[in-house]
Amino acid sequence: MTKIIDLTAPIDKYGGKVGVFKLKSHIKEYYEIIHEYLFGIITPFSPDFKKHAYLQSPFEMVYVIAECIQLTFSTFNGKLMKVTVLEGYKGYFKGIINIGMSVTELKNLEPALVYDEQAECYKYSGLKGLSIICDPYDRFIESISIYIEEWDEEEDFYKIEKIKKGEW
Q1: Which end of the chain is less crowded, N or C, counting CB atoms within 10 A of the terminal residue's CB?
Q2: Is residue 157 one of the residues assigned to a domain?
């Protein structure tokens, strides 16, 4: 079955998905999308820049889809652990928050969002698995990420080690 990439699909934290990309799904489900991707050092001037992947760390492989979606898979279990949308993505979170929105507008619409100094992003108090990163100079949303909730256990070294090993 062909998976259609919809750059206007909602960012659904509660359902754990952005369009056809669902958290904790296995990389093999996206074979038809990523099988032609180049791996390694790719520059924006490379002819295949739009189709590339890179190793972010020994336990994270990132595929860049349509220049505005980043899929981060665990190298140990092959499961999707994070979906990040960037400039060019037209979908919304909760129907109101999108890439390019000003921080002022974001705070007015969602006063429950708090800035996490350590992670340098906005998060909802009590809601795990979502981060909103704003450009520090222009003060606009530059990325929205949904990720496995286990990743927010950053205080617990043992749990973080299990995540790195793909044990989630």
Answers
A1: N
A2: yes
Structure tokens at 16: 């754990």
55 and 108 share one domain = no
CA distance 157 to 35: 35
126 dihedral zone (left: phi>0; alpha: psi -120 to 50; beta): left
Instruction: Kindly state whether residues 42 and 72 are assigned to the same domain.
Output: yes
Q: Kind of pairing, strands 38-39 and 21-22? A: unpaired
pTM to 2 decimal places: 0.89
CA distances (Å), 106 to each of 20, 49, 103, 162, in order?
26, 31, 5, 34
Asked if the model's pLDDT at residue 20 lies above 80, the reply is: yes
Instruction: Return the structure tokens found at 46.
Output: 């490379």
The stretches of the chain forming alpha helices (DSSP H) are 31-34, 103-109, 157-164
pLDDT for 80-99, tens place per residue?
999 999 999 999 999 999 99
